[in-house]
């Protein structure tokens, strides 16, 4: 699988280069991103893909000096579950 960073989303492609998941965010000013959507195709769920997408969002925020507001229910659950994400939580 390949994970690709686009302007306001991370996309995951399967081995056939088909899009099977994404995590999107909105920029809210200079220092905040809002994770608003995480999706993985039904056939690929349970493989840790959504968790990886949120992790990529956290890494993006750290690299760019931003905080994260996880509005997406899945992302919010990840932030509640993973204490290592608290440094970027808004």
Please describe what this structure looks like.
The chain has 90 residues and is of the alpha+beta class. Helices cover 27% and strands 34% of the residues. The protein has two helices and five strands, in the order ββββαβα. The protein has helices at 49-63, 73-81; strands at 2-5, 9-13, 19-27, 32-40, 67-70. It has a five-stranded mixed β-sheet. A hairpin with a 5-residue loop joins β2 and β3 (19-27). The radius of gyration is 13 Å and the shape is globular. It starts with a strand and ends in a 9-residue tail after the last helix. The mean pLDDT is 97.
What Rg do the Cα atoms give? 13 Å
Strand order of the largest sheet: 1-2-3-4-5
Helical percentage = 25-40%
Structural class assignment: alpha+beta
- How far do the termini sit from each other? 30 Å
User: What is the makeup of the main sheet?
Assistant: 5 strands, mixed
Unreliably modeled segments: none
> Which sequence of SSEs, written as H and E, runs from N to C?
EEEEHEH
The total beta strand count reads: 5
Question: Average pLDDT across residues?
Answer: 97
- Morphology: globular
Q: How many DSSP H or I helices?
A: 2
Q: Hey, roughly how much beta strand do the residues contain?
A: 25-35%
